Amino acid sequence: MNLRHLLQHFNEMLADLYEEEEVTAIFYVCIEHVSGLNRMDVRMNWERILLDQEEQRYSEIATAMTKGRPVQHVLGETTFYGFSIQVSPDVLIPRPETEELVDWILTTLRSDFQQAPETGPLRVIDFGTGSGCIPIAIKKHIAEAVVEAVDISQTALKVAKHNALMNNAEIRFIQADMCNYKTEQKYDLMVSNPPYIKNLERIEMHKNVLEHEPHLALFVPDERPLLFYEALADLAAKSLNEQGYLFFEINEHLAQETIDMLASKSFKTIELRKDMQGKDRMLMTRLC
User: Fold this and answer.
1) Taking the model in full, what pTM does it have?
2) DSSP 142
3) Tens of each residue's pLDDT in the chain, 288 residues
4) Is the distance from CB of 233 to CB of 94 less than 8 angstroms?
5) Which of 88, 191, 194, 231 is paired with 9 by a 20 to 30 Å CA distance?
6) Are the C-beta atoms of residues 189 and 123 closer than 8 Å to each other?
7) For the chain, how are helix, strand and coil distributed in percent, rounded to 5?
8) What are phi and psi of 145, to 5 degrees?
9) At a CB cut-off of 8 Å and minimum separation 6, what does 166 contact?
10) In Å, how far are 19, 45, 47 from 130, measured between CA atoms?
11) Domain 89-286 fold
12) CA–CA separation, 10 and 221 (whole Å)
């Protein structure tokens, strides 16, 4: 079997679960993981014959995915913002939209804080950290930052701690409920990608997300969808430094409601950004 035949095989095996474009993206992820080939390598070597052990591994991956398991769970890892992290059913699989949020955060922090070392180390805290992808990315790119990460799930924190160790990122992990979190510490940045999907939106979601990713990290009550945002906004009002930032990833359908909530809690600067698909997805706010 060559690479061209392998792509055809993936399409045949996964046609009932994914669109052809999605299967192609999955194919390239698997090729890089198993054979170490990037997209350009594949395009220049479609006739490359697979080794026996490669063919067996690809067959195992495709078979596992026919049962609805996400490719990241089958492989045991994914790439986020240029580095590898392990994922499991205990944590959300990081999405490209969260990479966009991280990029916005890093651009902002570099611009505002690189000129003020006399203020002490940059202090960052992430709520609902899951795999730890957000704080690890920040720590890897701003090494002098003091970074903390909070999650209510002990099993998620185990994954996050492993990922931080794997990426040589020194982060203090805390098991706590973000809705009841208390601290005397002041922060330059607070960030969260909290649960924000209303239960009534389940019908729009892919089966493999519903069956293989933690509902604790996905869903909020229909009657109070901004539950976590309200709690973190209240905490930020007390715990942000004067020039500090609060960043959120948000539900695209609740952008205006989130903006109105922040304004009602005396946040002055509020900026909304769309993701690469043109959906309202990220908010930055400040008290000044």
Assistant:
1) 0.92
2) S
3) 999 999 999 999 999 999 999 999 999 999 999 999 999 999 999 999 999 999 999 999 999 999 999 999 999 999 999 999 999 999 999 999 999 999 999 999 988 876 555 668 899 999 999 999 999 999 999 999 999 999 999 999 999 999 999 999 999 999 999 999 999 999 999 999 999 988 788 878 777 777 778 888 889 888 999 999 999 999 999 999 999 999 999 999 999 999 999 999 999 999 999 999 999 999 999 999
4) no
5) 88
6) yes
7) 50, 20, 30
8) -70, 145
9) 84, 85, 86
10) 28, 38, 40
11) Rossmann fold (3.40.50)
12) 38
As given in the structure block, the two tokens for residue 102 are 């991280």
Handedness of CA 62, 64, 65, 71 (dihedral sign): negative
Distance separating alpha carbons of residues 192 and 213, to the nearest angstrom: 18
Q: Residue 282: which residues within 8 A CB-CB, separation 6 or more? A: 97, 100, 101, 104, 247, 248, 249, 250, 272, 273, 274, 275
- In angstroms, rounded to a whole number, what is the distance separating the alpha carbons of residues 213 and 131? 12
Secondary structure of 87-116 in the HEC alphabet? CCCCCCCCCHHHHHHHHHHHHHHHHHHCCC
**Residue count of the chain:** 288
CB 158 within 8 A of CB 189: no
Each domain of the chain, given as residue ranges in start order, spans 3-67, 89-286
- Terminal CA-CA length for the chain: 61
